[in-house]
Amino acid sequence: MSEGPGPTRAPAAAGRPGGEPVLSVALASMMEEVHAHSGAVYLLRRDEPVLEMAVHAGLPRAFAAPWERLGLGAPLPVVDAVRRRELVWVSGEEEMAGRYPRVAVVLPYPFALAALPVATEHEVYGAVFVTWPGGHPAELSAEERARLTAACERLAVRLERASAEHRPLGREHDLLAAPAPELAGTLGTVEAARMVARLPYGLVSLDLRGRIGYVSPAAATLLGLTAEELLGTLPWVSVPWLNDPTYEDRYRAALLSQRPTSFVALRPPGDWLSFRLYPSLTGLSVRVGRARPMGDVAPGSAVAESGAPRLVTISQVLSLAGALTEAVGVRDVVRLVWDELAPTVGCRAMVMASAEAGRLHVLGHRGYADPHAVDRFDGLPLSERTPGMRALSSGVPAFFESREQLRRLYPERGESPDGFAAWAYLPLIASGRPVGACVLAYAEPRVFHADERAVLTALGGLIAQALERAMLYDAEHQLAHGLQQALLPHSLPALPGVEAAARYLPATQGMEIGGDFYDLVRAGPLAAAVIGDVQGHNVTAAGLMGQLRTGVRAYTAVGQGPHEVMVSINRLLVDLGSELFASCLYLRLDPVAGQAVMARAGHPPPLLRRPDGRVRVLDLAGGPLLGIEASASYPTTEVSLAPGSVLVLYTDGLVEAPGVDIEDALSELGARLAEAGDLPLEALADELIRASVPAGARLDDVAVLLLRARGG
Fold this sequence. Notes:
The protein has about 700 residues and is of the alpha+beta class.
């Protein structure tokens, strides 16, 4: 799908539920038109690049808790719909796992989802998503697509009109299905109760929020509580031995997929009960019965928390954990934590710091209008008495609900110059030691309830593990990058009769280092050039590359010819006992005689541009890759080089790409060389790299060595 223009901010407001229910009515109508069973409307805030959920329908809002507030950089369907300004369709759990793994981690159930922007031609006001149970066809029908698009366009017009009239819309009351009607007449109700009482198993009715609305006498007996103790409660809260996230997960799976599901639980000391859940759009009917013993299987040990639903906590932790698996370096961790955590917890700024050599080091920050407000902490001794230093040194989180509270406990800190009014200082502890601290700042005074403190502390542990990995990666990458830079020539020597230019680009995956190498060496009155590629993209490949380059220089210095040099470095690689192989192209250039003698070991063939502009791929004789066979031989080929001729030596990263035929790639490279071959050699090197190497991810290293013969 093509990338459209980025979203513009419309004056949508976030506020408390109330007023005319424009959004909820539009959402309900949209869901009814396409027979969706849940959905939500998001509004784009006017003061920050964040989508906020304004109304949710069909299922409890807790199902979408990690996505209440979405940064516009998050890889999520609703955000993609806004960024691309087009409908995003996800057909089921498999496609969700492939395209949006963060959603799949939290909601690993069979359901389909469509997300659409709510936008006019000039303004983006927000977005909508709707979902269907797993039985929905794999493709969104043309009629469904048209109805959803038209409904979003109508809603955008309503929002545009409200904005023009200075009536910005905000949060509205969520919509859940209406309760099932009571049986008509007293006799019907009594007879239904008698019928249920005669059944040999128990029945429980749960509403969409999971609360018990009815429990039969048999079910109450099996659960070990009275009906009065069960009614209005969550079964995984009121029944201690059902206090396991696995059982709560079955409730979510049934509602979201609208498919019956079941589980077996152990009622202490040794009674196994079976639970069969039958979902509908109004709730769940649960059949409870005795099950056969299942052996010594221990139940889960999760502990239910009072206060906010534990479902929110689990979802938030899983969502951030999924995001942090994508982090590579420290900058990635800072970006992902800001994109994921800030919209979730509502903070307006963030600082991440570590301790180095007894001082605080700021790793990154977001949300501060004046960066100097953060820079003043960089380099402070850890002995300074500040809340951040205390969290870092003690490993104990600190929460300050107002400026007054912070000033009372840390009077020497003075007035906060950043304008924020509440803070959470989270120590980042990994492998039992502090690796840093994360500071969250809030624009308004805030009460941090016990459940929120627990969530933030748990998230701090996830951030710490990702940060520890990222810091280790950055250190290794810096070491490896320095090693490779030391092994490649800093500049090419000026040799009589030869003009040279070279380029090297590391792969953008892995550690951004590899085994591609090149060199240009004086060989008496002649010039020797080499280019090669050691298998792999790691420190081992880079180290072996350095040994081969040194070997080539040594064998050239003692006067070996091209065939002998190749035989010698092949034996060197075999003797080193490395499991890595290498390709190589070596040539001896005589500018006075206008010729070059070349030897090749499994390397891509060079290109030659003659002075008249004609280009051909040199079909050189050659031998196997270096390091495979100790007795291998490498025949040579003599090539005529008139003054003005250009030789292009390269590694396979310049011409190989997924889905591209190598012959086509060589043909395109030859055409570019023919067209641009008269450019100065440095400019020609830049042009060949620019036209051949994609700007995004490079799967392989790229090395290019250009030689232009100038004659004697």
